[in-house]
């Protein structure tokens, strides 16, 4: 093998017979395998018989200092992977990793807890909603014709061809089309927005500070300050002034906030009937409110009630955004979670 390696490059490039080529290849593989076997045995002995670091060596062992003292960084192509910044379609050879992958750009660690209300939803309520919303249609039953939501063109002009349909007269806001509840679109809570309007903050900024502190205690997120959009001279409201705060919670935080409302706040409200059944925006989003006296019932405010001036404690409005496509489905979801409704029901 040493004689073959010692040959010059032109000599090694000469064509060899099949027998000689086979002998050369087998010899080189045998030599390489023997060296690899020796290296593997040395590696096994070194890893198995490695001595433990002494306390003095452990104290001096600082990987971060060794990385900081390194003059040249590691090759980025081999040791570092940066997912693409832009999505270039499903057929592009380079695809972004899933959001659950730690190297993804939109990776969010967690969840680190499972709220009781959310666990109840997935174990019991979701299957019950499918049962309650099931509408049996015998096979062969013709489907119902839905009225046209948009107006067409009469074709009196050649420009009407392939033209987009028009909205209803008066330009009303078209509600969402209610979808049947199936296994892949069971209504659930998407996010909850808590807002507080404090018009007294225009004259005294301390009201705004108290409202922001209350929402921070309830949600654990820093609320953003909102400004007025119109002028009301009689009430001393000027456009563009800071007069409110709001914040939005998602995921587990939304379920935890709603859990506190259902099991801790609502039972303490005296002569509380429930939420009006007429609430909603016809798109599956419902809302209700708390006055200043009811805000005291939250445990986060009650335990530190001495921190908030009694006359500055604000009320708030709670907007529950769900994945339902109608107010009927949203009411059914909240009723199953434990929120009662009263009054006239509007579909």
Automatic annotation (TrEMBL):
Residues forming the Large ribosomal subunit protein uL5 C-terminal domain are 243-341
Record's GO cellular component terms: ribonucleoprotein complex; ribosome
Per its record, what are the GO molecular function terms? Answer: structural constituent of ribosome
Q: What processes does the entry annotate via GO biological process terms?
A: translation
State where composition is biased (Polar residues).
Answer: 37-54
State where composition is biased (Basic and acidic residues). 55-72
Sorted keywords for this record are: Ribonucleoprotein, Ribosomal protein
InterPro entries, per this entry? Ribosomal_uL5, Ribosomal_uL5_C, Ribosomal_uL5_dom_sf, Ribosomal_uL5_N
Q: Where is the segment annotated Disordered?
A: 37-99
List the SUPFAM superfamilies: RL5-like
This protein's source sits in the domain of life called Eukaryota
Large ribosomal subunit protein uL5 N-terminal domain ranges (all copies): 185-237
Which family does the entry's similarity section mention?
Belongs to the universal ribosomal protein uL5 family.
Q: What is this protein called?
A: Ribosomal protein L5
